[in-house]
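re the bet — no i am not wrong, look at it urself. input seq straight from the record:
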Amino acid sequence: MAVKQTASGASKVQCVIMEATADELKALGHPVRWRILRLCLDRALTNKQLAVELTLAPATTLRHVRALVKTNFLAPEPVRTGEHGALERPYRATSRTRGLSILHDDTGLGQRVELAVLGAHRAELIAAGVDSGRGSHRGVLRLRPESVASLNDRIREVIAEYADEDDGEPLSYLWSVALRPPATEGPVTA
C-alpha cells in the first residue's frame, strides 16, 4: 500500500494488488475473522474485548485471533496493564486485506472468503442498527470476461479516489460480482 498526495493536498491510499495464498484464504474464510479485522482497524482491542463485542467465548475468539496473527492480518501490540491490573495484549488490523486479490479455483477457498465477507457485512449492518444503511444497489448484467475485469478496475479506481476524512462517518462498503445460476431449460414450475 502506498500513500499518494492528491492535487488538493489530501492523502489517498493506493492499493497494490496481491494474490492471496492458500493460507491467507483459509485465515479469511470465516465471517468472525472479518469482524475482528474491522473492529481492530480503528483501535487496538484485546481478545477479551473482542469476545465481549462479538458475544463469543474468549477461547473461540482467541482461535480466530491466532489465525489472523499467523497470517499477519492482525498484529499484536505491546502488552499493557488492563483496567484491573492484569496484563493484556491488544491487537490491531494491519490492513493487508486491502488490495488482496481473491482468486477462485477448485478448492472453493475463494468462494468461502467471499461468503465470509458477505456474512461479516451483514453482521455489521445488524450491529450498527436499523438506520445504518447509506445506500444499496443490486442489479444484473450480462458481460464478457474483459468487461467484468474493466468494471472491477473502474470500481476500485472510484473507491481509491476517496480518502478517509478525520471527521467522516465510519463506513463499510461491499462490492461483489458473481455469476448467476444458469437458467434451467423449459418452463419454470412451482
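see?? Residues 74 and 93 are 4 Å apart (CA to CA). told u. also The longest strand covers residues 2-5. so pay up
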